[in-house]
Amino acid sequence: MNTVLPGPPILHVTDGRATLTLNRPAHHNRLHVEDLQALLGHFDTLAADPALKLLVLTATGASFCSGFHIGAFDELDSAATDGPHLFERTVDALEALPVPTICRFNGSVYGGATDLGLACDFRVGVDTMTLRMPAARLGLHYYPSGLRRYVTRLGLGTAKRLFMLAEDVPAAELLDLGYLDRVVVAQALDTAVAQVADALAAGAPLAVRGMKTSLNEIARGDFDLARLRARQALCAASDDLREGKAAFAAKRPARFTGR
What we know:
12 helices, 2-enoyl-CoA Hydratase, Chain A, domain 1, 16% strand, 6-stranded mixed β-sheet, alpha/beta, 3-stranded mixed β-sheet
């Protein structure tokens, strides 16, 4: 049996479904500079794959992720500026992926990793997990795009609570706040994630990708109506739409090609 040594995140792609696994379990999957660089490389690879249908982001061990390695601030002279900016670029690249993304929370999440999860389109977590954003207790002002994600996805009141009070928030409450989409016992986590993944994979790729991009642009307030109309027109003239209508009429599953 092969043993996977701790280190940078591991990418695995099968049948158009990618799984990206954080891989430093002994340190709660904290993210080092080399991990962020690896993630950016993986995101570039995934963004260029026309056959890709979705991505699941998860981790090894008992925790999901403890965020950026705080010790790097002392280890590298440039980390005080480069580390946080690199982290922001990495999370923004995850959000910008054209395919839908699912965060599989195998355990608790802390710090910047809370935004890594928030950048995904869907979040499924175990009922024993907690979330904590300790930026205020560390003296950190969080980066702009992360603050924007919190406010646009969870609302201003929830964002202020999570950032300014730095509370430990349990899974059931994260579901109520809208941070989690589903909460399950650990034994049911893979089944719950597979249900979301199957539903996404059943959609027409042009429509799924286009609407993800359009919805994120609308949430950020930087959408352009002409771009949205162009995506709408692309789908309206697609083979996928013709196949979708034929499948609906025949009461059979659609066989989409992404064209």
